[in-house]
Design brief:
Blueprint (H helix, E strand, L loop, with lengths): L1 H23 L12 E3 L4 H10 L8 E9 L5 E8 L19 E2 L3 H4 L16 E7 L8 E9 L5 E9 L1
Antiparallel strand pairs: 1-2, 2-3, 3-7, 4-5, 5-6, 6-7
């Protein structure tokens, strides 16, 4: 009995020391999962970041409808917007996103990861989309970029972009 109590005390002490070392070393240890964000009114900075990492053409006028960041070891960003064009070839930098690859999405639920935001729900109308691997701006490696859009009656496009680190 004495041996088990001593072993338990040693394990508790090891855990406490390990936790203290993490805290004193400046590690960002949180149970909240980081700085997750979800909004239907993205800031100018959030929109600028999306334009950059998602290769959205800066000349295209957009109306943001939603932005979500799932922060973690591998970040995920969901960005939905109205593009003031009905030409999908104008949406993105064509050196990274080939508009000719957009095809009908038969199962929208499998195209995008599950998300709690109601604004992210892919429209039930016919959508076109494609999956791309793109380089991160000013860096090495690749990032995933899933894009879908629906054509609206007012000659605009509703665009859904899922960007994720791989």
């Amino acid at each position: 009995m004495m041996f088990e109590k001593k072993t338990f005390q040693n394990n508790v002490m090891r855990f406490a020391i390990g936790f203290a070392l993490l805290a004193f070393a400046g590690c960002d240890f949180t149970l909240s999962g980081g700085d997750d964000v979800s909004t239907t009114t993205p800031t100018k900075e959030q929109v600028a970041k999306c334009r950059k990492v998602m290769y959205i053409d800066p000349a295209v006028e957009i109306e943001p409808l939603g932005y979500a960041l799932d922060a973690g070891m591998d970040d995920v960003i969901r960005f939905k917007f109205i593009a003031k064009t009905d030409d999908p070839s104008m949406l993105f930098d064509d050196s990274q996103v080939e508009s000719t690859r957009f095809k009908p999405i038969l199962k929208p639920a499998t195209f995008f990861t599950a998300a709690p935001e109601t604004w992210w729900m892919l429209s039930s109308t016919a959508s076109l989309g494609a999956k791309f691997s793109v380089p991160p701006p000013n860096s090495k490696g690749t990032r995933g970029l899933n894009i879908a859009y629906t054509k609206n009656d007012d000659k605009t496009l509703t665009v859904y972009v899922l960007w994720y680190e791989t």
